[in-house]
Amino acid sequence: MSEPQLAIVVKGFPRLSETFVARELQGLEARGLPFSLHALRKPGGDAALVDNKVQAAPQYLPEYLHDAPVTVARAFLAARMLPGFDAAWRAFRADLRDEFARARVRRFGQACVLAAQMPATVRHVHAHFAHSPTSVARYAALMRGIGFSISAHAKDIWTAPEWDLKRKLAGAAFVTVCNKAGYERLSSFGATAVLRLIHHGLAREVIVDAPRAQTRDGSDGRDPVRIVSVARAVEKKGLRRLLDALVSLPRELAWRLDHYGGGDLLSELKTKAVALGIDSRVTWHGPQAHRAVIAALDASDLFVMPAVVGNDGDRDGIPNALLEAQARGLAVVASCAGGIDEAVSDGLTGRLIPPGDADALQRALTELIRDPRIRQTLGLGALDYARRTGDAEAGYDAIAAILKERIGG
Length: 409
Fold this sequence. Notes:
Layout: E1 6-12, H1 19-30, E2 36-41, E3 58-60, H2 69-79, H3 85-98, H4 102-117, E4 124-128, H5 132-144, E5 147-152, H6 155-159, H7 162-171, E6 175-177, H8 180-187, E7 195-197, E8 225-230, H9 239-247, E9 255-260, H10 266-276, E10 282-284, H11 290-298, E11 302-305, H12 320-327, E12 331-335, E13 351-353, H13 358-370, H14 372-389, H15 392-407
Helix pairs in contact: 2-4, 3-5, 4-5, 9-10, 9-13, 12-14
């Protein structure tokens, strides 16, 4: 295999919450685009659950500079000899004036290591997420005198400082964005010329031919309506409000909730379910492999995604779990936070509610638990949306074409 002309920078690899990154990288490899892969941190304990088929072996940068002082020092000395070091140093100093923080220094140190670590043949650097991975990629690209580009997603778009995003957009060769809400925010910074709206999409095999027939109506305690939630237990997923809505459901309704995902709030949510007296109806499955999640969707009657905007501004783009639920023909109850209303049209592909409104969530759940016909209709609409918009291969084609143009392939 020829030496790669492309380097890709990610925050961690592989990550269960970012399986779309692994799928895209696999898609690039399938299109004859070899790359070196560089991660800012090693994977967490759930990495074994990721169906990772990427051939490129990730090279891990020091997560903290004090973990590898000799490596960092040697890389810094080597970086000073590169043609673009002065430009990178000026960019770093300007950023440091606006964000005087250890994290900013860490990114520059990681960039020095990246510049030394990348094969000499690399002609372009592409970063997933516009915050820390792009900071490292931008500095390293400047050092090497090559271009860089960005795949922007959700948290990075909404929580990174505006000045930081503007500088990165001004220097990037192109920026892909996976949802319209994020695209519009970045467009507001005057960056329309470099932006490309390319949705993640879905693997074709995830999209079913027809949804399962809906029959449960919440009247039989022996056969309750199965509600499923697939989301990390973090603030922006709105799971606190979900529990508030569930405890307010009419007492005669028979339902169960199965939640899939890990996260910092999981223990708090379990405690809250006990305090509300609904813990016997809620099962916390924790992080699971993709095949287990698909099986759970197929066994369920209703998918819920009550996302909110976090206190730090963080919000979802279009959650991949939501798209997969639609692709399995499930009716969806979701909030209009972030980019969700791009995929969920109220009354057509699901029920859309205001973010954080537990009463509206309770009403929507009550309606759909009681009426399998509405669930069936919304599930058909959701499946039709997935069929029309869900092909990930088209997105991989588009990204591969742009990257090949950048490296002259």
